[in-house]
Ribosomal RNA small subunit methyltransferase A (Actinocatenispora rupis), 292 residues
Amino acid sequence: MTNDPGTAPASRPLGPAEVRAMAGAIGVSPTKTLGQNFVHDPNTVRRIAAVAGADGDVVVEVGPGLGSLTLALLPTVQHLYAVEIDPRLAAALPGTVADRAPDLADRLTVLTADALRIDAGDLGPYPPTALVANLPYNVAVPVLLHLLAVLPTLRHGLVMVQQEVADRLTAGPGSRTYGVPSAKLAWYAAARPAGSVPRAVFWPVPNVDSGLVAFTRREPPSPGVGRTAVFEVVDAAFAQRRKTLRAALGRWAGSPAEAERVLRAAGVDPGARGESLTIEEFGRIAAARHAG
Ligand SMILES: C[S@@+](CC[C@H](N)C(=O)[O-])C[C@H]1O[C@@H](n2cnc3c(N)ncnc32)[C@H](O)[C@@H]1O
């Protein structure tokens, strides 16, 4: 089911004064522990919704907060599952949508839950196809990787994260910022930078600017071993990223000599470093170890 933008019902966005007033009315003073920085600029949420390209999608939004982005997404999505950990924000969201987008209220399902603990069965009848979220900063990478793991129907998404995290998520082998988040995200999806967002559009104003990361799911590499085994190699290689793989993987393999044997069997130079390896190469190393 898609929605014709020409006839789609509209929603009334939240501006700066309204964001503060709504938070006050429900007794929320934003906390750092929950990464509560609310967007109060209607142009920013319109832009995020446009770049997300989630028209006709069943969207998962993590951390809807006061509903700024939710209101921008609802006019064109098929359905939206909003997963919010703060019960006061979750309880207020249906009322906000009923008030500002009354014709769209039945497209929204609100779940009061920790996004790190949900799985597909928690959401509802529609298989989710897109993730669009201004992610809570402190758990952004674990949430993204968790949802890609437990929601196999997610085809694409757009997430807003700290600029530094956006750089890491979208880095490729050989880059200074390539690391565990980049390699693990590459297992699931092709990711690309999709713009930046200045800190001034948030309340309260954070210490850093934000970046948008767009991703499209891809077939995972098929080394013959599972994701957990491959991610163990990624973690071991980057735990000592300045060391050669022969040394960095010594404990994982049992000894540097065994690491060298596995690396050679995988066709990977034992003198290379993890930061130069593709996710396919990490997969080959895991498979070579399990092949014995
Ligand atoms: C950066 S704010 C974004 C709020 C809103 N989407 C916006 O753009 O204004 C992050 C939101 O995620 C919520 N949150 C934090 N940790 C969470 C978790 N583990 N699961 C679900 N929601 C979480 C916070 O309460 C907050 O509402």
Observations:
- The domain at 5-217 is CATH 3.40.50.150 (Rossmann fold).
- Residues 34-39, 62-65, 68-69, 83-86, 89, 114-116, 134, 136, 139 surround S-adenosylmethionine (CB under 6 Å).
